[in-house]
Structure formats: C-alpha cells, structure tokens
C-alpha cells in the first residue's frame, strides 16, 4: 500500500485528499442533521408526554379544564407619565378591548394630581382587587406607583409604563399647555395665548421650563413616599430604579414605542393580540402630536443639562432604556429590517410519574 501511494502521481494524491476532506465534511453534516433531528424528536416526545398527562388529569377530574377566560382576573395598571406617547398607546387598548374581551378604565384624579390621599389609596386598591365585573382590566391614569402589598390585599396587578428623554418630554409638555395637539384641537389649554418659545423661557428663567419641571418620571416610579417628590433626591432615584426592575412587567421608551407594543403583544396576547398591526396601520391610535412645537437650541439643552435635577432624571431614563433594550434583545430578532418575536425556546421533559 505504501508502495502504491509512492507510485501515485501528485495530482491523483491531491484529488484523493480532497475527496477524503469532502467525505469527512459530508459525514459531519449528516451527524449534525441527526443531532438536530434527535433534538426535535425529544421535544415532540416531551410535548406528547405533557399532552397525555393533561388528558389523564382531565379524565380523572371528570371534566374539561376551564377556559382561561373564565378564571382570568388579570389586572394591568399603566400609571402613565404625561407626554410620553401615553394617549397614543392607551387608544390602542381602547381599540382592542372589545375584540379581546377586557375592560379599560381611566383613573381620573382631581386636577390630574398623581398623589392620592391615604383614604383614596385604600379605596383604589380595594376597587382594583375586588371589582370582579371589571376583570380582566386595564387601568390607566396619571398616578404615582402604589405598592399593593402594603394594603393587606391578595394579589397584585401588573404594572407597565413608558418613559421619554427628560428634556424632550418637558419641551413637548411646554408647547402642549400652549397649543394643545391634533387629538383635541378645539380644546382650550391652560397657557393658551402665551407665544413665548421654550428657548425664550429658558433664557429668561421662566418657571414653566425650570429644571424642577423635569422632575416627574422618577416620582411616578418612586411612588407615594414624601421623598419621591423632593426634586433631585438620590433616594427617590434608587427607589424608582428598584420599582422599575422589581414591580413593572415592562417599561418601554417613547422613541421605540412600536418595539414596546410588539413585546407586550408577545408576552400578554390576552390583552394585546393585534396591537402591533393596529399601531402600524391604525388611523387614529398613534397620530397624536403636539402642535407648534419648536425644537430647543443646543444652547438651551446645554443650560438645562447643567442642572443636577436633569442629571438624576437622565440617569433614570438611561437606566430604563438599558433595561428595555436588554429585554428586547432577548425577545425579538431583526431580519431584513423587520423585527420578529422569538418563538418559545424552552420545553419540558422527563416528566414523572408517567
């Protein structure tokens, strides 16, 4: 054999080596295909085992499992921050509630005060948890976060929210108070008639554009503690961060609202099935825009960014943005410029007793 290899021409030897390499690649590819087929078979067997167990359980109890809708007492609270596209998103819930069979309720507080009295806190918590006729329910309103666990009730709602770049939010609110928006153009606003631009307001030290007006998103997430409303409080910042991570199912950002809606639809189809398509094609749900809004100059932005209040509010916004982008990275994938929700990536196996 060694003699034959020596006597083989170099071209034949090269072809033999290439043929051997191709054969090895083919074998490796077949092995990989077999491994993938084995994994698919294991998942199919596991799903079959789960189905058999569920079927036996149904037969043992002598009745079919109750549909989710009969037991569904889910409550979502969207304690919306003003001028973060909250009306746009809420309108989608109103458009979907009939089709998806859930209730939408607006929490209308006197003068839009986000802080409830203690007695109203108790009333509200009792209403939300015991009002069975309104379940499943989607509550929305400009209300600071409430920790339901401190009121001695069973069950907690799921919180969601949206935040926005602090300066962009304040600019939008400033012009909204003067010119309104295209949602209700005929409604007279509180500062209607004031033609001063946001830049002029900042330059003259006006109260409607003062750094203290930036202090809103942190207290909305911090809650009903007095320190939450102390502008510039680092304790309030840390409490708001804690609540965002531990008490909110999802917090999106205005700048990426469509992604927020897409993830909500994937996580909570009971409420938000059809929301993404509605947002993309709806004629009214996402068209609310503040009128006469003029972008601030770089000088105006730089002046506001010198404030400690802006630095703390912006730190919270950046924290929320990072958390949302982390959730999104594990929930969707981009292909050909479009986002797609990832399919379920876990399954059950080795289920005993059989």
Automatic annotation (TrEMBL):
Main location: Golgi
Signal peptide span: none
GO cellular component: Golgi membrane
Cell location: Golgi apparatus membrane
Record flagged with keyword Glycoprotein: yes
Coiled-coil regions, chain positions: 24-54
A molecular function GO annotation: heparan sulfate 2-sulfotransferase activity
Recorded topology in the membrane: Single-pass type II membrane protein
Entries under Pfam families matching the protein: Sulfotransfer_2
Keywords: Coiled coil, Disulfide bond, Glycoprotein, Golgi apparatus, Membrane, Signal-anchor, Transferase, Transmembrane, Transmembrane helix
Keyword Ribosomal protein attached: no
Family named by the database record: Belongs to the sulfotransferase 3 family.
PANTHER family reported for this sequence: HEPARAN SULFATE 2-O-SULFOTRANSFERASE (PTHR12129), HEPARAN SULFATE 2-O-SULFOTRANSFERASE 1 ISOFORM X1 (PTHR12129:SF13)
The name this protein goes by in its record: Heparan sulfate 2-O-sulfotransferase 1
Organism from which the protein derives: Seriola lalandi dorsalis
